[in-house]
Design brief:
heterodimer; A: 323 residues; alpha/beta; 7-stranded mixed beta sheet; 6-stranded mixed beta sheet; 15 strands; B: 671 residues; 5-stranded parallel beta sheet; 5-stranded mixed beta sheet; 12 strands; 8% strand
Chain lengths: 323, 671
């Protein structure tokens, strides 16, 4: 049985305050309506905003209370200082709204919570009604500084690079896809598309964008017959799909290096991180991400719906039913 | 020309695009072997000289063939072209290939550790990495496991901290041991991200394994005594400055029986310093091979390119394609057909656009030039004198008249002289002094005729494609890939039946040019600046090429005195060169007045279709420092707009003259 299917998720009513109450809410602030609304809807004893440095908010643009200004050379430094500022999290009911986060921070945060003794975290994600510029929406700035492994998700790689595999969850940001593909130019590449997508037109739009990177990905990965699919709003199925892709490759090439790059929704990034923490630690597998100097503060309109995912950071998923 | 014999090639023609795979990284070892092509004289393999002990740095733009060449020299390929292991040894070297991207070198930084700590850990890690590479490559050459112990004992003494366990008795055991050490290192580096402590115990001093293992192998096994272990280090650009210093240290301190070939992109060398702060110099500590420049400058490049392509075609079942006949598969530019096409268009629209345009400009100038105006009948006479059934000649006539206008020569007299000259040219098929213009500006005149009739620019034929690729085999293959796709799309049978149409070639070239513009992009903000600057440069060169009186023919090049250019602009120019968007022209441009030699750059011909520029290089636009700054690092958009307007006005009638300040229509009397 696929263990990822034992994890729980449920929809949240976005018209009312949450029925559940948590000890701590962690959100990343940005200007999207869905981020602010979801923050307001959650019933939590403490609510904390982190202002990610890439959004470059000025003093007068910051939320009025409980805002921690993130600063530091990388995600680990930023998030570590933030978690330290919140105080002890072990044993407390923690909910993280990942809607306003940048993917690499979602990944680092998940590992960090586990390391700080959090065994279960509820993760929220608010879906937009639409993206501002459809498939032309830019999530990141022009300036990809480097593509590198995400701290804590760096594998134990072998020096035989001939069978390397790069699995990319593709979204609208085709330039990021191109940069990641170029960084592992020699690797066999597999694209995962978000299907079902967050909104009906989004799959078609990401297909349109993927044509822009066909050259960088090579003929095999760009052949629609080789496309892979995972729901854009389900981390558990995403984890399961990635797991199957990697397993298939490793069955053939046991010593192959594998690189995972979640460039689509934050939910899929969560799925990648979850898969990594459960199956890939100390293997020849890394999560790689293109780091940009800036990210768009506002990319979407409205809050169409929201999901709650229960992520167990222990070895076995919880059997508790949320429904 | 030396080409590999074709093995197991498909016999039946297929619809598969033979140019689908354009990167060596996507090719299997067998494909690398089968598709390898070299020059008959002065082969690239000879230039690489794998038997040389002198380290080499192989520079090349993206797609210049570095990886293909380095992999061709690697052990798996040596083996595939040999009958037996002994043949590999007889080649005199073992190629130990690896990619720096596999090291994931960015992780050796940050995480609250000092750069010095990371430098030490990286050196150790690479030592283990290369040690494994030596052992795994040499494994097939080792004797029976029972005879390996003396070697292993010697090899273990290379480590600073030899293992306590005595279970390591074979080369395979030693390989596993080094793997374990590397693994421990990986885990410590990974944990460091969250624990902030880096628990790595360095067990091998720099160089001990890299140079020591090959030496011990040669000492212990007589059949390896005369073998040179050549480290083929590809993608050096993936290493930071501090990490490259370690590589430079290895190059400088090279010991027998080892040597190095280091592949790096043009922008990829961050330092020539060693860990001991010494500088490695070309031809002292290393020799350099600049691959794309080497390919560009070869007189037999066309033959090499034809062989490269025909080898691809043969491998995918197009056995009938002969490299010497390759060009015949492509529709070429046909002036007669072109003239007929234009006549058909002129008939529909009631005349040629350039005559219509000239008429309008003369009339407008006459109206604005003076209160009394000009005699209309002179304009009509001029038009009659310049008109010609040959559109190319007619266009040349117009260009000559614009020159006369610019020089303030009497226009009616000029038109009469041009008409006479055209008649002589037409009858005698020779060029008198005025129609020299056709020798130099023919390509530009044809480009202008195409543009004014809204026809696509012509970059046609295999020869043009080779010129466009300009030393980048991947560029050539990418053009052909897209041309092939479009040809199929138009229902043609490329390389099987008939010619590949001009329209398929035009579409393919356009797409390949866009690909190049996207691919040849530096990372970070500077990449954006370079793209914007190249767009401005392209706009300016295009504006001049399509002006009434272009100052230079076949304009794709500019020169500038670097001393007058701002540091920001210089940085953009240098980055554009590093990423192959600009090609530096050897020898530069001699300033006619001051005898100074200025820097000279050509827009990479792969980008030419983006702005309808020529792929050949003849004239050069001399830029002032201010103009170069406005193009490459403007303080505001207005800087460039001003340059563009000034340059454009100077080359388009009425050549910047307004009202009564200057004679707008020299020689034409005002009524």
């Amino acid at each position: 049985m696929n263990e990822y299917l034992l994890f729980y998720k449920k929809r949240i009513d976005v018209k009312r305050r949450t029925r559940e109450r948590w000890d701590v809410l962690i959100s990343a602030y940005n200007s999207s309506e869905r981020v602010k609304r979801l923050h307001a809807l959650v019933d939590a004893q403490e609510k904390h905003w982190i202002l990610l440095p890439e959004y470059k908010y000025e003093q007068n643009e910051r939320p009025p209370s409980n805002a921690h200004v993130g600063a530091g050379e990388d995600e680990e430094v930023v998030m570590s200082a933030f978690i330290d500022a919140i105080g002890g999290l072990a044993g407390r009911r923690v909910v993280v709204d990942i809607t306003g986060f940048i993917n690499s921070y979602v990944i680092v945060l998940l590992a960090m919570l586990g390391q700080r003794g959090v065994t279960r975290v509820d993760v929220l994600y608010g879906e937009p009604e639409r993206y501002l510029n459809s498939e032309r929406t830019r999530f990141s700035g022009e300036d990809v500084l480097q593509v590198r492994q995400v701290f804590g998700f760096e594998g134990v790689h072998t020096n035989d690079t001939s069978k390397d595999l790069l699995v990319i969850a593709v979204g609208y940001d085709w330039k990021l896809v191109s940069e990641v593909a170029a960084s592992k130019e020699h690797a066999k590449k597999v694209q995962i598309f978000g299907l079902p997508s967050l909104r009906p037109d989004m799959y078609q739009e990401s297909l349109l964008r993927s044509r822009m990177v066909a050259e960088a990905l090579g003929p095999e990965a760009s052949d629609p017959r080789n496309f892979q699919y995972a729901p854009a709003s389900d981390p558990f199925v995403t984890a399961s799909v990635v797991s199957a892709i990697v397993r298939g490759h490793r069955d053939e090439y046991p010593r192959a290096n594998v690189y995972l790059s979640p460039l689509s929704t934050k939910v899929q990034a969560l799925g990648f991180a979850l898969y990594y923490l459960r199956e890939c630690q100390n293997t020849a597998t890394s999560i790689i991400y293109p780091l940009c100097g800036t990210y768009s503060r506002e990319t979407s309109e409205g809050l169409a719906s929201a999901w709650q995912f229960v992520v167990e950071l222990t070895s076995e998923p919880s059997q508790k039913d949320l429904s | 020309m030396v080409t590999k014999p074709v093995q197991a090639a498909p016999t039946a023609p297929t619809q598969r695009n033979p140019f689908d795979i354009v990167k060596a990284t996507d090719l299997t070892d067998i494909q690398i072997d089968h598709l390898f092509v070299d020059f008959a004289k002065g082969s690239l393999v000879d230039r690489m000289n794998p038997l040389s002990r002198m380290p080499m740095i192989l520079f090349g733009g993206k797609g210049s063939g570095k990886t293909h060449l380095m992999r061709y020299l690697s052990y798996p390929l040596q083996l595939s072209r040999s009958q037996a292991l002994a043949d590999v040894i007889n080649e005199g070297y073992l190629g130990l290939y690896f990619r720096c991207s596999g090291l994931n070198a960015q992780r050796f930084a940050g995480k609250r550790q000092s750069p010095e700590v990371w430098a030490a850990v990286f050196s150790y890690y690479l030592e283990l990495w290369l040690g494994q590479l030596v052992l795994s490559t040499a494994a097939p050459f080792l004797p029976a496991t029972t005879e390996q112990r003396p070697f292993v004992e010697k090899a273990l003494r290379l480590l600073d901290v030899p293992p306590a366990a005595t279970s390591i008795g074979t080369g395979a055991d030693l390989l596993v041991y080094l793997e374990d050490l590397q693994r421990a290192c990986d885990v410590a580096i990974n944990n460091c991200a969250l624990t902030h402590t880096l628990d790595v115990r360095i067990q091998a001093t720099s160089g001990h394994l890299v140079f020591g293992l090959p030496r011990v192998l040669a000492e212990c096994f007589p059949h390896l005594q005369s073998v040179l272990f050549v480290y083929l280090i590809d993608e050096l650009e993936n290493l930071s400055e501090a990490q490259q210093r370690y590589i430079h240290t290895l190059l400088r301190e090279r010991k027998d029986p080892c040597s190095f070939k280091v592949g790096v992109r043009l922008y990829g060398i961050r330092t020539y310093q060693t860990l001991g702060d010494e500088i490695n110099h070309e031809d002292a500590e290393y020799e350099a091979l600049r691959l794309d420049r080497e390919l560009r400058d070869r007189p037999d490049l066309s033959e090499f390119a034809a062989n490269l392509v025909s080898q691809r075609l043969k491998e995918t079942g197009y056995a009938a394609v002969d490299s010497s006949q390759l060009a015949s598969w492509f529709e070429e530019f046909d002036e007669t057909k072109f003239a007929a096409e234009l006549h058909a268009k002129y008939a529909k629209q009631g005349g040629s656009p350039h005559i219509h345009d000239l008429n309008e400009k003369l009339t407008r100038a006459a109206e604005q030039g003076s209160a009394s105006g000009i005699r209309k009948r002179d304009i009509a006479k001029i038009i009659t004198l310049l008109s010609n059934p040959d559109p190319i000649l007619e266009k040349a006539n117009c260009m000559l008249l614009y020159r006369a206008w610019h020089k303030r020569t009497g226009l009616l007299e000029a038109a009469e002289s041009i008409a006479q000259s055209a008649e002589v040219y037409n009858n005698a098929s020779s060029e008198d002094s005025e129609h020299q213009i056709l020798r130099h500006f023919r390509g530009d005149i044809i480009a202008q005729l195409l543009k004014e009739s809204r026809l696509p620019a012509r970059y046609l034929g295999f020869k043009d494609f080779v010129s466009m690729s300009s030393g980048l085999p991947r560029g050539l293959l990418t053009i052909l890939k897209h041309v092939f796709t479009w040809s199929n799309f138009y229902g043609e049978h490329p390389f099987r039946e008939g010619q590949i149409s001009a329209k398929a070639q035009a579409e393919g070239v356009k797409q390949a040019s866009e690909w190049f513009f996207t691919e040849a992009r530096a990372p970070g903000a500077i990449g954006g600046h370079v793209r914007e600057a190249m767009t401005r440069l392209g706009q300016l060169l295009r504006a001049i090429r399509f002006s009434d009186k272009p100052s230079e023919c076949s304009l794709s090049t500019f020169s500038v005195d670097a001393a007058t250019v701002s540091p920001d602009a210089l940085r953009v120019i240098t980055t554009a060169e590093d990423w192959s968007m600009l090609l530096r022209v050897a020898g530069g441009q001699v300033d006619r007045n001051e005898g100074r030699v200025d820097d000279k750059y050509q827009v990479h011909p792969m980008l030419a279709p983006r702005w309808d520029l020529p792929i050949v290089r003849r004239g050069a636009l001399v830029l002032s420092g201010d103009e170069a700054n406005a193009i490459f690092a403007p303080s505001s958009p207005a800087d460039f707009e001003s340059v563009l307007r000034r340059r454009s006005d100077a080359m388009n009638a009425p050549f910047g003259r307004k009202g009564n300040q200057e004679p707008m229509l020299p020689g034409l009397e005002r009524e």
